[in-house]
Amino acid sequence: MTMHPLRLAASALLLFAATGAHAQYVWIEPNGTRQYSDRPPPPGTPASRILKSPGRAALAPAPASSPQLAPEATPAKAPPTLAERDAAYRERVKARTEQAQKTDQQTQDERANAERCASAREQQAQLASGTRIALYDKNGERSYLSDAERAERSARAGRALQDCR
Fold first, then answer.
1. CA distance 34 to 70
2. C-beta separation of 25 from 37 below 8 A
3. Which of 68, 99, 160, 163 could bridge 32 with an S-S bond, Cβ 3.0-4.6 Å?
4. pLDDT in tens, 87-123
5. Where would I find the beta strands (DSSP E) of the chain?
């Protein structure tokens, strides 16, 4: 089968016409974004911002002369590897565990301090009441606090209460 010269010419004409339909313009808008279109950029767009137009080769954008082009000029950072993500996860778990232990220790310290303060307040109230306070020694014999012992214990309870809130 031979092709007629007329058909060959028509096919070539259609082929060349189709390439013109795919004309592509690329320019950078004033806000810094790239615009792709089959229509030319708006009037007033400086030639330095037009990156590609039909009949003109694609231009590389200016290196960091314009602050709006700087984000495109920086290379993309590769996503973290599985090992890096695992290491980061383990660090977060370790930090969380340490924070939980620190919080638990702080809570225990606060609770113990509150118990000491309550005990010191109770002892000071008992010593200030004026009632006789009986003590029992290791043999089970009862003795009573003297006034000097009462004053010394009251002073000790007062010192303990200075650290309380």
1. 13
2. yes
3. 68
4. 999 999 999 999 999 999 999 999 999 999 999 999 8
5. 25-28, 34-37, 50-52, 134-136, 142-144
- In angstroms, rounded to a whole number, what is the distance separating the alpha carbons of residues 145 and 135? 7
Cα separation, 33 vs 41, in Å, equals 13
Residues of the chain with confidence (pLDDT) below 50? 64, 66, 69
For the chain, the residue count is: 165
Residues 5 and 10: their CA atoms lie apart, in Å, by: 9
Q: H helices then E strands: how many in the chain? A: 4, 5
User: pTM of the full predicted structure?
Assistant: 0.43
Nearest 5°: the CA angle 116, 118, 121 is 110
For tokens 């006789």, name the residue. Answer: 132
